């Protein structure tokens, strides 16, 4: 039986809500039955009607939705939060308090202190909070992780990760662009480029390598005059085993559309994954010819090959990565966290907020090295 899904946010003109809805439907594990798509009642009703929902399950207030759905015999099993960042924690708190599990877009919230409070609430409620770091669910990202953890690259020496976009290279927030508008407001976004795409790069590097830095040195910059939040992030990283790392995230890098790239170098070889070519993973052994592993090929580990939804040679990427998160979320909600051990959860969210906090403190101190807080 499909799980009953509710959604907060994702109404008219929203982008990520539609992505979540497609992902939730792809494996037929969820049915959208309720939503608080907008605080504007008429907007909410219009959005719900387009999604074929009953008017009485379209709410203009998420608190009302949490209470009403918890009281229904046929109420939702889980809610997806697809709002601007400042609402993530309040919405999650309302549904956790109502005994309803949560799937939340990243970043987790707007501050490290808020993240710790939310983590305490998750533990106290006994419910689950799942974070949609979709790139970590790509079949070849999972393959890269498997090979590194199996020791194929030897001892890790360098980690290089970047996430480059150009879409904010002009002051788009001064236009009627809804996505740019809220991302430029500190009270709604909490952080700029570092939270929007920097946390994706951070989580990808940690997920694939299995390593978190001990300390970072960061420089956050706003290149667009008058922009209140960072649009370019440069971070150096130090690891406990002596490895070094660099992270560059930018939304003003002209010529780049969605350039998320990871390279990991070890004593016995290196690997490279580029999100814009998600069906290829390059392996470069020491003193041997490089080779490319393709998605769904016989050269993948079986458990990673089984993640593919279409045959080898057919393109698969962003939406399928999201759908894998939702597929594993369904297992997790039915059978507990052990049923989906690689699914990003509250710990991943807290780590992401600790990274943002440390980078901001380092940047304010002129790039001073800052120890990472252990969640």
TrEMBL record:
Ranges of residues in domain Gfo/Idh/MocA-like oxidoreductase N-terminal? 4-132
Gene3D superfamilies in the cross-refs:
Dihydrodipicolinate Reductase, domain 2, NAD(P)-binding Rossmann-like Domain
Pfam families assigned: GFO_IDH_MocA (PF01408), GFO_IDH_MocA_C3 (PF22725)
Q: Which residues form the GFO/IDH/MocA-like oxidoreductase domain?
A: 141-272
- Matching InterPro entries: Gfo/Idh/MocA-like_OxRdtase_N, Gfo/Idh/MocA_oxidoreduct, GFO_IDH_MocA-like_dom, NAD(P)-bd_dom_sf
Concerning PANTHER family, the annotation shows: CONSERVED EXPRESSED OXIDOREDUCTASE (EUROFUNG) (PTHR43708), OXIDOREDUCTASE (PTHR43708:SF3)
What's the protein name? Gfo/Idh/MocA family oxidoreductase
């Amino acid at each position: 039986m499909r799980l009953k899904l509710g959604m907060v946010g994702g109404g008219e003109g929203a982008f990520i809500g539609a992505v979540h809805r497609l992902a939730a439907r792809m494996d037929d594990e969820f049915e959208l039955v309720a939503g608080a798509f907008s605080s504007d009642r008429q907007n909410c009703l219009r959005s719900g009607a387009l999604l074929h929902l009953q008017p009485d399950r379209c709410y203009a207030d998420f608190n009302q939705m949490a209470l009403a759905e918890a009281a229904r015999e046929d109420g939702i099993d889980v809610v997806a939060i697809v709002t601007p960042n400042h609402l993530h924690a309040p919405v999650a708190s309302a549904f956790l308090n109502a005994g309803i599990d949560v799937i939340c877009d990243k970043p987790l919230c707007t501050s490290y202190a808020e993240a710790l409070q939310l983590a305490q609430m998750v533990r106290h409620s006994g419910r689950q909070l799942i974070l949609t770091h979709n790139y970590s669910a790509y079949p070849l990202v999972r393959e890269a992780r498997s090979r590194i953890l199996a020791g194929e690259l030897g001892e890790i020496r360098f980690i290089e990760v970047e996430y480059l976009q150009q879409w904010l290279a002009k002051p788009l927030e001064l236009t009627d662009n809804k996505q740019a508008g809220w991302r430029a407001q500190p009270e709604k976004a909490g952080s700029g480029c570092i939270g929007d795409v920097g946390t994706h790069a951070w989580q990808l590097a940690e997920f694939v390598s299995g390593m978190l830095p001990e300390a970072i040195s960061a420089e956050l910059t706003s290149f667009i005059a008058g922009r209140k939040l960072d649009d370019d992030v440069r971070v150096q990283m130090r690891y406990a085993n002596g490895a070094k790392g660099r992270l560059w995230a930018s939304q003003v890098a002209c010529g780049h559309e969605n350039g998320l790239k990871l390279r990991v170098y070890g004593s016995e070889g290196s690997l490279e994954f580029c999100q814009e070519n998600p069906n290829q993973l390059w392996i470069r052994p020491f003193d041997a010819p490089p080779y490319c592993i393709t998605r769904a090929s016989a050269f993948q580990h079986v458990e990673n090959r089984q993640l593919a939804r279409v045959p080898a040679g057919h393109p698969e990427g962003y939406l399928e990565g999201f759908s894998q998160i939702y597929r594993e979320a369904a297992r997790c909600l039915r059978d507990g966290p052990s049923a989906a051990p690689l699914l990003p959860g509250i710990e991943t969210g807290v780590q992401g907020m600790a990274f943002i906090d440390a980078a901001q403190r380092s940047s304010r101190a002129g790039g001073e090295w800052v120890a990472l807080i252990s969640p």
